Amino acid sequence: MNAPRSTRPFGQQGERLAVSYLEQQGYTIIATNWHCRYGEIDIIARQNHTMVFVEVRARHAERTEAAFESIGPHKQQRLARAVQSYLASHHLEQAVWRVDVIAIAIPPSGEPIIEHAEDALGW
Prior knowledge:
With 123 residues, this protein is of the alpha+beta class. It has a single domain, classed as Trna Endonuclease, Chain: A, domain 1 (3-Layer(aba) Sandwich). It is built from three helices and five strands. The chain has helices at residues 8-24, 65-69, 73-89, and strands at 28-36, 39-47, 50-59, 96-105, 113-117. The protein has a five-stranded mixed β-sheet with strand order 1-2-3-4-5, with helices on both faces. A hairpin with a 2-residue loop joins strand 1 and strand 2. The longest helix is centred in the first third of the chain and has 17 residues, at 8-24. It is globular.
């Protein structure tokens, strides 16, 4: 029986692509892979005066739909709790913030497709 393959290297590749994308869009990266009891925030960035908490979803696919669809209500709640934990632990309760999702489709051949949804908890 084969042992399951780790998805960690693929996830890290997606996060590197997302960081590069955000930097090209003018975001300042504050932290990556921030952990708390509610889970992990993949990327914490700043866009002007707004704190942006980014969930990155990468899939081996031709389109990004499956990556976006993988964030259900339970994951959204965990993200919101993790963001609140980050803000409280850094004394930023008054900060302006939002949660974004970056979905990445990596097709078998060709360039990765990156789609960025701002204010994803407002869906």
